[in-house]
Amino acid sequence: MEKSGAEIFVECLIREKVKVLFGIPGGVLLPIFDKLYDAPIKFILTRHEQGAVHMADGYARASGEVGVCIATSGPGVANLTTGLATAHMDSIPVVAFSGQVATHLIGNDAFQETDATGITRPISKHNFLVKEVKDLARIIQEAFYIARTGRPGPVLVDIPVDIQRASCEFIWPEKVEIRSYKPVYQGHPKQIEKAAQAITLSERPILYVGGGVVASNAYEELRKLAEKADIPVTTTLMSIGAFPPEHRLSVGMLGMHGTHQANHAMQNADLIIALGARFDDRCTGKLAAFAPKAKIIIHIDIDPTSISKNVPANIPVVGNAKNVLTELLKLIKPKKHSTWLKQIREWERKNPLGYPEDGKLYPQYVVEKICEVTHGEAIVTTEVGQNQMWATQFYKPKKPRHFLSSGGLGTMGYGFPAAIGAKIACPEKIVIDIAGDGSFQMNIQELATAVVNKVNVIVAILNNSYLGMVRQWQRLFYKRRYSGVQLYTQATKPFTCPVPDFVKVAEAYGAVGLRVTKKEEVLPTLKKALKVKDKPVVIDFVVEPEANVFPMVPAGAALDEIITSLA
Ligand SMILES: Cc1ncc(C[n+]2csc(CCOP(=O)(O)OP(=O)(O)O)c2C)c(N)n1
Ligand SMILES: [Mg+2]
How far is the CA of 545 from the centre of ligand 1 (A)? Predict the structure, then answer.
């Protein structure tokens, strides 16, 4: 039976089990939007395309399914780029559709024409320009397949308006067959054997765990391996919650704002087992001084191009974390590393995470209380900057897929739309965006989307009236010359003229706005916010303006060159 391109689009989304589509229409999407009018797919109209793509990303991270968004040609798809790059850096499965000018106009500088595939090539896992309607169904199927398999990532499909109008017979291929794309899921048995031997011989091993463990749902296998071989576990920003933060073997996050124990453990380990992690510079610090005592590095990753990219691996294993761990578990013997673990606890005891207890309202306290009232069971998203790092240090999610944060790209404005996407994916969960006053303003317009769609998320703004993380670097490394970081109007005093008044902004959008200026108001206000139904809540926590994130490994320093305070 013949179908139009627009009908094929809808049919493919149904077959891919897409329940929600985030986006904004435009001239070149009119045929598709006409078919969406009575399609069994919920369309969420966002207020900016960046909001749409982060919502799709948050939906994907929270649910483990592919998130889907759509934007018009030209400015629409250009507005998707930050979100695509965010998903790309963090390996998140997103399929983005863009409308394109008619095929005969491509290259003519037509109205709202932009080279969508050209712009998105370096920031997507793959992309397609559909040139003939007969290719559309196959391309959409391939886009979903590529997004969710192997090392996941965003895929863009650019669909010219005349393709949406043209028709052909609808053919849904039985299965996807891409000659040049065959992800390897099973690790090589010989390599796994070598890895098992290295683990058996090691005295000071550490599991360095990244987002690959989340992508492959390898939590159980990870816990079993850590417990059986008595190996401490450090998680990256991408895997917080993939190993229980309160577990006796958990050493917390490593890297620039990681815990003392995690960073010292990396620097003193004789064996590093990197699992779905990519030795990002925020994790390794100065490469030349990274893990000097490691005799062996095992690197397990589904993406062979990730292995030995930054740090050479002695035992590379290409495969997905879950399968490789399953095989590895069979070969590992039970072992105890009491001395090593005692040493790690000693590092922690000497330098635990903390903040001043002087009665003032510290951002860390707010995060601690968020964790307390939600029992670590809420899905937390973060913005970027100090808020994000305090969230990593003081929010302890009990489960994976409960800490969603822009790791690789560090995208301010990510957290709020991601929270909306997560809440739509998991309506039964409490969802809280731990935000900065700067970042929240980058996608604050999505308050309208949340209000209109009755999305009950909480935005907890750690309002320090600064672009706090940049201010912190200026405080530490530029003699406190605060340049371009003030988010208030009077240059000498924060909070004398808060811009904007977040409570009023929330109310203007039809959301609930609350303000907290004292420590004792934190818990009651959080409890009040948790009682609100069917609406977003914005809490303006007016915190200590010059609080800093410690510990800190300065950029370019070795992991054990740790600053612990201002002095
Ligand atoms: C889109 C974007 N622009 C600029 C930056 C650089 N940057 C990193 S942290 C930061 C400050 C963030 O301020 P805020 O959201 O208030 O968070 P805080 O650090 O104060 O908690 C800036 C500007 C960024 N990460 N993303
Ligand atoms: Mg701030």
Answer: 15
Mutate to test the pocket of ligand 1, among 81, 406, 411, 439 (most ligand atoms within 8 A of CB): 439
Residue having the nearest C-alpha atom to atom 20 of ligand 1: 468
Q: Indicate whether residue 205 lines ligand 1 (CB < 6 A).
A: no
Q: What is the C-alpha separation between 97 and 133, in angstroms, rounded?
A: 15
Rounded to whole angstroms, the Cα distance separating 20 from 45 reads: 11
Buried b (16+ CB within 10 A) or exposed e, 262-289: bbbbbbbbbbbbbbbbbbbebbbbeeee
Kind of pairing between the strands at 20-23 and 42-45: parallel
What are 296's strand-pairing partners? Answer: 271
pLDDT tens-place string over residues 324-362: 999 999 999 999 999 999 999 999 999 999 999 999 999
541 lines ligand 1 (CB under 6 A): no
With a CB cutoff of 8 Å and minimum separation 6, the contacts of 357 are none
Is pTM, for the whole model, over 0.90? yes
Ligand located closest to 411 CA: 1
pLDDT tens-digit map of 515-567 = 999 999 999 999 999 999 999 999 999 999 999 999 999 999 999 999 999 97
Q: Which of 228, 238, 258 is nearest to 337 (CA)?
A: 228
